[in-house]
Amino acid sequence: MADFDEDANRLVIKLVFYGPALSGKTTNLTRLHDLLQPELKGEMMVLETKNDRTLFFDMLPLGITAPSGLLIKLKLFTVPGQVAHDSTRKAVLSRTDGVVFVADSQRNQSINNAESFENLADNVNRVGLDFEALPMVVQFNKRDLPDVLTESEIMARWSKMPWPVMFASALEGQGVIESFRELLKAVYQSIDSQIGLQKSHSLNKEQFVLGVLGEGVGHE
Ligand SMILES: Nc1nc2c(ncn2[C@@H]2O[C@H](COP(=O)(O)OP(=O)(O)O)[C@@H](O)[C@H]2O)c(=O)[nH]1
Ligand SMILES: [Mg+2]
Q1: For ligand 1, atom 28: residue with the closest CA
Q2: Distance 43 CA to ligand 2 centre (A)
Q3: Fewer CB near the terminus (10 Å): N or C of the chain?
Q4: Do residues 137 and 24 touch, judged by C-beta distance below 8 A?
Q5: 173 CB less than 6 Å from ligand 1?
Q6: Which ligand 1 atom minimizes the distance to the CA of 21?
Q7: In sequence order, which ranges of 39-144 are alpha helices (DSSP H)?
Q8: How far is the CA of 77 from the centre of ligand 2 (A)?
Q9: Is 179 in the pocket of ligand 1 (CB under 6 A)?
Q10: What is the separation, in whole angstroms, between the first and last Cα of the chain?
């Protein structure tokens, strides 16, 4: 369930970039941070783990306010991808409201992607969330590199799945906002069905997405 405090009329949304080591999770988060207007973001922060770092920042440190007075805040996290950091990944996933799964498009990374995706499903269940119901976007990153899976190869496998598939070159800032926007739409649907964003708070999906991203973003 979303972190909703009914008495305080306050909602904190937690979103996580998950995926294998070196797929570009940190690059997504830092690019997103770069692209947001200063007033929409807090400082990037680091949690040191052995050999890797978990990065996070608060989006909307002041929050956005729905017509009902509901105050909405967002927290964005990356996880360390190395196999050794499973307990950190679980801790970060706990109570998450949505995930961008960042896959590496290079052909030789297919096994790493698959293992990480299985690890995500396992850990989502272990922290007591429902994988089927979890808002998620699957991003195939590093499209700029040679020897990547073609879009049709990727779609042949993933188009049967319930999640939107996005293509990105996070290093160049391409597809970062688009992926995040898709996630925001799915997260809206999920939280709307939990606490009635539309019905009880008069906040529709477009207002939510626009409010979170601000108007000045998307110049990629
Ligand atoms: N060519 C290319 N390299 C990328 C892209 N995204 C990330 N990288 C590189 O891949 C490496 C790992 O990226 P990082 O974001 O640290 O991966 P993480 O382990 O998932 O957090 C770094 O050298 C990045 O510069 C991309 O879209 N294209
Ligand atoms: Mg990283």
Answers
A1: 142
A2: 17
A3: N
A4: no
A5: no
A6: 19
A7: 86-93, 110-126
A8: 10
A9: no
A10: 33
Domain spans of the chain, in order of start = 3-213
d(CA 180, CA 186): 10
For strands 3-5 and 10-18, give the pairing: antiparallel
Ligand 1 proximity of 209 Cβ (cutoff 6 Å): no
Q: Please tell me the number of the ligand nearest to residue 55's CA.
A: 2
pLDDT band at 85 (very low <50, low <70, confident <90, very high): confident
Buried b (16+ CB within 10 A) or exposed e, 73-111: bbbbbbbbbbeebeebbbebbeebbbbbbbbbbbeebee
Hey, whose CA ends up nearest to atom 18 of ligand 1? 22
Evaluate if residue 145 carries a pLDDT over 80.
Answer: yes
- Is residue 200 within 8 A of residue 143, CB to CB? The reply is no
* CA of 24, nearest ligand number: 1
Class level of CATH domain 3-213: alpha beta
**Among 43-47, 120-124, 164-168, 210-214, whose mean pLDDT is lowest?**
43-47
Indicate whether this model's pTM tops 0.90.
yes
The dihedral built from the CA positions of residue 197, 66, 163 and 89, taken in this order, carries a sign that is: negative
Cα–Cα distance measured from residue 161 to residue 138, given in angstroms and rounded to the nearest whole number: 10
